[in-house]
Amino acid sequence: MKLLVVRMSSIGDVLLTTPLLRCLKQQLPGVEVHYLTKSGMASLVETNPHVDKVHILQESMSATVKMLRAEHFDFVADLHNVPRSRRLRRRLHVRWKSYRKNTLAKWLQIITKRAPKKGRHVVERYFDAVRPLGVHPDDKGLECYLPSSMDVAAFANSTIGKSKVADLTAQPYVVIACGAQHATKRIPPDKLQFLASTIKKPILLLGDKGDAERIRQRELHFQPHVHNLCGKTTLMQTAALVRTAAVVVTPDTGIMHLAAAFQVPTIALWGATDPAFGFSAYHTLHADCVSDSCWCHPCSRTGGERCPLGHYNCMNHQKWQQICQTVDRMVSAKTPQTSATEK
């Protein structure tokens, strides 16, 4: 059987498909698994041993369809289930199945502020798309495979900007994810400054160029034990730094799922969204931090560009001092790593 998995974005969502990829290979003898995604996400699956071939989404639908039709697939598992992926699967004229996005349940939680009594993680819901093939979850976690050029020793000898990776990772360190795609999921700048100044262990700040610019605009200044790497790392370098972190502090973003893929203890800070939506850190040690004094949480399925009420209490009223103390304890309990085993 030749099967196409469709998940075009984003970092976390692609990582959340990896249990399904593993189970396809393990439970369907002889299956050939192909994966369609955007170019920026390709590195997350190119080295995955459960994927035989990665296809990059083209600029036009016609070009993408032409490329995929040449493969003569037997089945399409649509794990994106958006208008574009629906048009694509119809035009391929092969058997397909998708999964339910639970949009109504999310909106009911947003309106009523009551979490569902029982909900399924999105990883488990993804398996609805392959259940007709007899594939089921194996109750194991996410996976992220780095290229051989980024094994622990080789990566330690590389540099990021003007910093040697060996120096950045010499002691047990904390990764703080500075940003997220949507503003109402990000750590506020003043709270980022508080974390960086209060946590006494080595800290690596990770994020994209937008995060670097926001830090510059707010004129945030950090102590020597804090290394601002925002905008300086590739996706694979970010993954490699998360891989050997002692603990990761992150909002609802892709770095949370990278940490889960490497089984790194995680403190997840929830702003506009909520872990009950089914996107919490999967099968790994983690703590979900939700402000218990914010009556308006959650307010969005995916986050937005501004707080609807203007106060952003879901993040501002987190227990920041307690979070810092927990991080310090977790890092102190972590013994220095002299080696690591890659997945």
Q: Could you explain how this protein is built, in words?
A:
The structure is a single chain. It contains 15 helices and 13 strands. It is an alpha/beta fold and 343 residues long. It has two domains: 132 residues, Rossmann fold (3-Layer(aba) Sandwich); 183 residues, Rossmann fold. The strands form three sheets. The chain has a six-stranded parallel beta sheet with strand order 10-9-8-11-12-13, sandwiched between helices. The two termini are 26 Å apart. The C terminus is likely disordered.
Strand segment tally: 13
Structural class by sheet pairing and helices? alpha/beta
What is the typical, i.e. mean, pLDDT?
A: 94
CATH fold field value of the largest domain: Rossmann fold
What is the CATH architecture assignment of the largest domain? 3-Layer(aba) Sandwich
Rg from alpha-carbon coordinates? 20 Å
List the keywords:
six-stranded parallel β-sheet, 2 domains, 343 residues, globular, 15% strand, five-stranded parallel β-sheet, alpha/beta, Rossmann fold, disordered C terminus, 13 strands
Can you lay out the helices and strands and say which pair or pack?
Elements: E1 2-6, H1 11-15, H2 18-27, E2 32-37, H3 43-46, E3 53-56, H4 61-69, E4 75-78, H5 83-92, E5 95-97, H6 103-112, H7 122-126, H8 152-156, E6 159-160, E7 163-164, H9 165-168, E8 174-177, H10 189-198, E9 203-206, H11 209-217, E10 226-228, H12 235-243, E11 247-251, H13 254-261, E12 266-270, E13 286-290, H14 313-316, H15 320-332
Parallel strand pairs: 1-2, 1-4, 2-3, 4-5, 8-9, 8-11, 9-10, 11-12, 12-13
Antiparallel strand pairs: 6-7
Helix pairs in contact: 4-5, 10-15, 12-13
